[in-house]
């Protein structure tokens, strides 16, 4: 009667979740599969009943009869393409099945473990081709980025993956599409923000964050109003929670690198409540590693919010106590998690060493705040301790890299956040040496030697020209030379790697040669850098520091 009084159409009949006598849902098996696929999609769709209304847009879509071309009320012709054979990198002739098999095997045997096994249930090429072609494209692109032998494969895969993402902007996609965007966000630096923001948008439309509640629904009186696969299957819900946490981590990483607010702020309670997830009996080594990142980035987010990393004015003296407080929080964080880490079957001791490196990144990010707005003026007395911490942390980062083989092996493998923070540590260290070596009592020769040794290591690291190691090495080399010249100190020489890197002014054969980062020759500009790479980091200019180490 209410609908009649308001002059609107009455609600649809409730859709039963019970099977009919033949064991099928009403409408047949084909409609059942189609409905399940659409429920998994990311576009906002009208509710099936008033009890399922979750947002104002749901009511609007229902009463206005606006349907997605992919929704269950669309004619079969609009969805015909979904049931056809899906094309992929191999069927399109972009790469061969042999190359794809090698790339997929390399990803799952090593790279996926840097990202806590987020590749999900897929472990083979044929399964990816059948179920998730765009995830296959993302995996092949990321894997090819870490293959020093074949630059052209990376370029072909990257071009195809970007094309698929661009064409899918207005289309409905499933959770594996978000997985593909998440994986690419961590490694493909030049488009990371684009991939991450799209993944976050789609995750919000899918209400991925509600999977967290689904894991604990059986312990509470309330239950979801509309059943979903994640609420019915705890393993699916756990996988989606891990995926959401990784989106949070990537978003926070980009927030730090670009000095911008994070996108995932409304669901911050889930991030703060990470201990509930960790205390589950099913939590494993990967969960510990993921949640160590979440916990750390919650602290670093507070540093950004309170100290305001994009503010160009010097910090007020009253904030000195806040810096001390955050420093203690970082110490407690490391103490808590360092005892929980164990060697990884695929990465050895890298996870624990990565934890140490992230601890240093946190200290570096905190300490660099005191240099804001100084423009070369002396450091205020109340911030001298924090300034010294920033210097010592930058030194510790390079000492770790030079002293730990697992970190050296991971230079081609670890996500790009590591490379950018390492490069920033070098840049900040050189800026401190140049402007404050007298006030802080720094032995600049020792620091220059440390940076030079790290550069020597980077030059010996095999990688293709699109890899961050290749990109950051020439810029950091020039920064070292400029700082040494400005204070009249000679840069110690190092032995060139075998093979003569000076010859790299001519690009090696792209199909079969092993690539090394170029060495800028004296008196000449460095090798031109691909304009597409690192354009995403145009805002990575920490206050009072010109972070041009990548160009």
Automatic annotation (TrEMBL):
Keyword annotations: DNA-binding, Nucleus, Transcription, Transcription regulation, Zinc
Subcellular localization(s) per the UniProt record: Nucleus
Acidic residues: compositionally biased ranges: 28-42
InterPro entries assigned to the protein according to its UniProt record, in alphabetical order: prtT
Stretches the record annotates as Disordered: 1-53, 66-85
Record organism: Aspergillus calidoustus
Protein's name according to its UniProt entry: Transcription factor domain-containing protein
UniProt GO cellular component terms: nucleus
Molecular function GO labels: DNA-binding transcription factor activity, RNA polymerase II-specific; transcription cis-regulatory region binding
CDD domains named among the record's database cross-references: fungal_TF_MHR
Key word Secreted present: no
């Amino acid at each position: 009667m209410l609908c009649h009084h308001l002059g609107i159409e009455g609600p649809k009949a409730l859709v039963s979740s019970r099977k009919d006598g033949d064991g099928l849902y009403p409408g047949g098996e084909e409609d059942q599969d189609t409905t399940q696929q659409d429920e998994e999609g990311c576009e906002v769709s009208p509710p099936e009943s008033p009890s399922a209304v979750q947002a104002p847009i749901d009511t609007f879509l229902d009463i206005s009869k606006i349907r997605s071309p992919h929704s269950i009320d669309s004619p079969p012709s609009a969805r015909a393409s979904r049931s056809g054979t899906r094309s992929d990198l191999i069927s399109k002739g972009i790469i061969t099945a042999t190359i794809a098999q090698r790339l997929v095997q390399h990803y799952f045997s090593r790279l996926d473990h840097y990202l806590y096994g987020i590749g999900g249930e897929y472990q083979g090429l044929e399964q990816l081709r059948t179920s998730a072609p765009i995830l296959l494209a993302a995996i092949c692109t990321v894997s090819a980025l870490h293959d020093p032998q074949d630059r052209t494969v990376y370029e072909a895969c990257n071009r195809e993956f970007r094309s698929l993402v661009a064409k899918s902007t207005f289309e409905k996609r499933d959770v594996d599409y978000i997985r593909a965007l998440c994986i690419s966000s961590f490694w493909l630096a030049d488009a990371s923000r684009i991939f991450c923001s799209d993944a976050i948008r789609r995750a919000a439309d899918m209400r991925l964050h509600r999977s967290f509640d689904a894991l604990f629904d059986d312990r509470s009186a309330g239950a979801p109003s509309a059943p979903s696969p994640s609420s019915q299957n705890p393993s699916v819900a756990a996988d989606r929670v891990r995926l959401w946490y990784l989106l949070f981590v990537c978003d926070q990483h980009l927030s730090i690198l670009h000095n911008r607010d994070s996108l995932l702020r409304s669901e911050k309670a889930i991030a703060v409540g990470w201990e509930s997830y960790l205390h589950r009996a099913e939590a494993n080594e990967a969960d510990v590693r993921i949640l160590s990142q979440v916990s750390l980035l919650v602290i670093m987010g507070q540093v950004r919010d309170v100290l305001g990393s994009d503010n160009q004015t010097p910090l007020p003296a009253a904030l000195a106590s806040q810096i001390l407080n955050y420093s203690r929080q970082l110490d407690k964080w490391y103490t808590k998690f360092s005892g929980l880490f164990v060697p990884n079957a695929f990465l050895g001791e890298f996870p624990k060493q990565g934890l140490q490196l992230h601890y240093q990144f946190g200290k570096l990010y905190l300490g660099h705040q005191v240099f804001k707005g100084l423009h070369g003026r002396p450091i205020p007395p109340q911030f001298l301790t924090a300034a010294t911490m920033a210097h010592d942390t930058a030194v510790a980062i390079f000492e770790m890299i030079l002293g730990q083989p697992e970190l050296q092996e991971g230079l081609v493998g670890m996500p790009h956040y590591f490379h950018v923070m390492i490069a920033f540590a070098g840049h900040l260290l050189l800026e401190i040496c140049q402007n404050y070596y007298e006030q802080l009592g720094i032995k600049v020769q020792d620091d220059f030697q440390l940076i030079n040794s790290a550069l020597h290591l980077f030059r010996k690291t095999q990688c293709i020209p699109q890899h961050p190691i290749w990109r950051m090495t020439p810029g950091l080399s020039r920064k070292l030379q400029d700082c040494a010249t400005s204070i009249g100190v000679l840069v110690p020489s190092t032995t060139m790697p075998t093979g003569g890197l000076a010859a790299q002014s001519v690009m090696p054969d792209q199909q079969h040669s092993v690539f090394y980062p170029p060495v800028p020759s004296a008196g000449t500009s460095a090798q031109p850098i691909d304009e597409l790479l690192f354009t995403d980091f145009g805002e990575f200019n920490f206050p009072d520091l010109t972070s041009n180490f990548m160009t």
